[in-house]
Design a protein that fits this description.
Length: 531
């Protein structure tokens, strides 16, 4: 039989799995950050949390990218896995129901589980066979070999034969004959099953008897009308009656099913466990592929990133865009080039409201997250070092502001970032400190930026505080990582959503907008004089 120990579609080895489960190679990125970046809206998982699949291990990331490449190039693989998911969910639900019933001799459920197991193996076998010519990844190549060995083995064939024999006997059951003892007042006292029958009982309706004229001696024709047992009965009563019949069938076939249970315990449960363990991985791969295919369908670029060592703190992306925005809009997606380098480990991004600052800030975080999920990155080319942690500080509602006030809450959250951040982390700040006046906000922001410069982490601070540019020399004088500025541009009075590496100039934005609406001094004087 095929050996599925340590097999995974998203980890290259048992050692990689154990490292991940022990917390090694796992970045400090939880669902809060992924929700802040908007990823939860387009990448929902049922069997696991998306953050559980993030890793810093380069070999694991390369292994996954091979797997995603296979799925993107061969739709048959995705269709196969989509067919498998409901089968695995049915096994989980069956186990839950069996556990709730607390019946150790529930042999009929064992038959259902093995039917589902065989169905799952057959789905994989036929699907992988069809996709074989296009399979290149280590994950699906290994799965193909193991499933083929299993599905084409004599043991598996014997399992199918035994299942067919047993299920034929059980599935032929169409009715049960019940004997009921009555007391002197004709009230039911006790009941039991007299026989299990291969035919259904027929109604004892008088007209039906007249039409057939041969009802005499017909053991399956009732002398009174058939009445649905659920009519006028409560849910508990229906359940009790159904359980009683199920138990009776179980008892009748107990001897045959006992030997079947041994087969299930010695073979099927272990292999079913292998399939169930793959369920979170399968769902992650299917959802991830659907997202990537949706982006490709919109003409958005995707690339296999150059995974740089963590210590390099690299981030260079050409034609980067925000995938969460791209999948929602019908028009052209604006792309930008972003690079953290020796001249800038920290960026201050300024520009007009709704000029694209938040979108590109999230795009940087999403590029890192996509890579550390092992997915293609939303850009034309990318060279990125994994991060050990990702921290976001985005605008919030009224959470925790009753005691601290909004500014206090913002400062408290910033302080928590400094408790955990390292030089290998990524920090994304969007309109932080917007709850106070420009003077106070600029002062605190300058202190925060100087602090991140001392840490040396990659930082992008999107802000409305143009005054910060005047303090850059003072901040840089404190030492630490290099700091530069980015500007969200306006062209011809319109927001271009293009990001430029330049010094901020708040007046230029104001003049562009003023010109668009005819509110420059010259235009105003012209209007006055034309009256």
């Amino acid at each position: 039989m095929a050996d599925f120990v340590d097999f995974s579609l998203i980890y290259p080895s048992g050692e990689a799995i154990r490292r991940h489960l022990s917390g090694k190679d796992v970045p400090n990125i939880d669902m809060y950050e992924l929700e802040e970046l908007g990823l939860d809206e387009i990448f929902n998982l049922r069997s696991s949390r998306l953050c559980e699949h993030l890793t810093t291990d380069a070999e694991t990331l390369k292994y996954r990218m091979e797997t995603f490449s296979d799925m993107l190039e061969n739709e048959q693989i995705g269709k196969m896995l989509l067919r498998l998911i409901p089968v695995l969910n049915d096994i989980l639900e069956l186990r839950r129901l069996t556990s709730d019933s607390a019946d150790p001799n529930d042999y009929l459920s064992s038959i259902t589980e093995i039917e589902l197991y065989i169905s799952g193996i057959n789905i994989l076998h036929s699907g992988l066979k069809q996709a074989k010519g296009g399979i290149k990844s280590r994950a699906f190549s290994s799965l193909y070999e193991k499933i083929t060995e299993l599905a084409e083995s004599e043991y598996y064939a014997e399992l199918n034969r035994k299942l067919e024999e047993l299920t034929k006997r059980v599935r032929e059951i169409k009715s049960i004959t019940v004997g009921v003892n009555l007391d002197a007042q004709l009230r039911p006292v006790s009941a039991g099953v007299l026989s299990i029958n291969p035919e259904k009982f027929k109604s004892g309706d008088v007209i039906e008897k007249i039409l057939k004229m041969n009802f005499k001696g017909d053991e399956y024709t009732c002398i009174a009308d058939l009445v649905p047992f659920s009519r006028d009965s409560s849910s508990n009563q229906r359940t009790a009656l159904s359980n009683a019949f199920h138990s009776a069938i179980n008892d009748v076939y107990r001897q045959s099913l006992k030997s079947w249970k041994k087969i299930v315990q010695s073979y099927v449960l272990d292999n079913t466990e292998f399939l169930l363990n793959l369920l979170p991985e399968i769902e992650f791969l299917v959802k991830g592929t659907e997202l990537l295919r949706s982006l490709k369908g919109k003409g958005c670029p995707l690339c296999v990133p150059d995974i740089r060592p963590m210590g390099e703190c690299a981030f260079e992306a050409k034609s980067l865009y925000n995938p969460c925005v791209a999948v929602k809009i019908d028009g052209e997606t604006v792309t930008n080039d972003i690079s953290f380098d020796e001249k800038a480990r920290i960026y201050i991004l300024t520009g007009p409201n709704r000029g694209g600052k938040s979108v590109i800030t999230c795009a940087v975080g999403l590029a890192v997250v996509f890579m550390q999920l092992g997915m293609f990155v939303p850009s034309e080319t990318a060279a990125i070092s994994p991060v050990d942690a990702l921290f976001t500080h985005f605008p919030t509602g009224a959470d925790d502001t009753i005691d601290k006030g909004r500014l206090g809450e913002e400062c408290a959250r910033l302080g928590q970032i400094f408790d955990s951040v390292s030089e290998n982390s990524l920090v994304l700040l969007d309109e932080s400190l917007s709850s106070t006046g420009a003077y106070e906000a600029s002062y605190i922001a300058a202190e925060v930026i100087a602090g991140f410069a001392q840490v040396g982490c990659r930082t992008l601070f999107a802000t409305h505080l143009h005054e910060l540019s005047a303090q850059l020399d003072e901040i840089r004088a404190k030492g630490g990582a290099s700091i530069d500025t980015l500007v969200a541009g306006i062209e011809d009075g319109k927001r271009s959503f293009k990001i430029h590496r330049a010094s901020p100039d708040g007046k230029s934005y104001a003049r562009d907008i003023a010109e668009k609406y005819g509110l420059t001094y010259e235009n105003i004087i012209s209007k006055i004089n034309s009256k």
